[in-house]
Amino acid sequence: MIFGILKDIKEGENRVICTPVEVASIVAAGHKVLVESGAGVGSGFADAKYAAAGAKICDTAKELWDTCDFLAKVKEIEPSEFGYLKENQMIYCCIHPAGHPEEVQAILDSKCIAITAEDSHRYGSPNCEAAGKQGALFGLESMLTINGGKGKFVGGFAGAPGMNVLILGGGTVGQGALSVLYALGANVTIMDINPGLLRTLGNQYNQKINTMFCTQETIASVLPQTDMVINCVKWPKQRKDFLITKEMLKLMEPGSVLVDISNDDPGAIESSHETHHNDPRYVVNGVVHYCVSNIPGAVAHSTSVSLAGETLPLLLNIMNNGLEEACVRDGFIRRSLTAYKGYLTHEETSGIQGRPWIKPEDILGIADRKLDFAPPATTTKSENFIRLDCE
Is 264 a catalytic residue? Predict the structure, then answer.
């Protein structure tokens, strides 16, 4: 198979989906690898290192799109790339399809085979860990007086108390933020809807953190004492309400900070909208907002190494065994199949956008096989099925 590594072109994005180490493994498995020139430069991997690992370096993205059977990158397919999509070609990246209808339409129109990376991680995405940990640090940066914050130091000084931080969501992102802030001496409260998770986190930190159930009412009760909020909740896209409204921001002191790592649209924070690394902050009702959508891109080397190492087995599974067999063997690949030759195969996208869909196992003809299990990626359901036997 001819595999291509594209350079990410999203604003502020420096990560790369494979490092030279993974390229060497793919080449050793008998596949040909093409790398767009400069794809790894932002992460610290020069073209020469990819060439030494056995890859062919291509001057333009078009050469990869025209040549490769299977392409991969980190972030979404940008509008400038829609015209490159073509029938039967596979692409793997963080599509976030439910929130990007134009991207989904371009994928369906092209009849390509698209796999959304964010749903494919069996053990949780390294991007999520990176977003939580680095997002916490960006929150502390936003708290600085020189950045419009109220100037509190995370762990305090002699005679000056440290910060009170509220983390919404105790998943991989929230746990990443918690580990950094706790280590730096913040007084942390973490909220979630899962009592078992809250119990586990409380025990893990020897009951030196506060845990609460996550509702709008409990959030409002602690906002007056909270210096920084970090939102790590993956908000169901069909919901029209919020965990924190613009009015609730008035409960916080001026110069307080809100970091929206999840950054969904719509999301759990009414006042949140996407920003980029070159202009990351804005203020609503006195609260400094940090809402960069690709926080891990700021630590591109470490994130690329971690992401590439976890992704390699998935990529090799597809390349060595073919998509159908890979989807039998790995339920996480199966659930992340977004579109297949003009058919939507992603349930959340169907439920949110009202598009008809077909289950991956049905379109691939593997429903009667013994399939590896994977839990649903989200709680969104759709019965709006495409019936192939009725066409």
Answer: yes
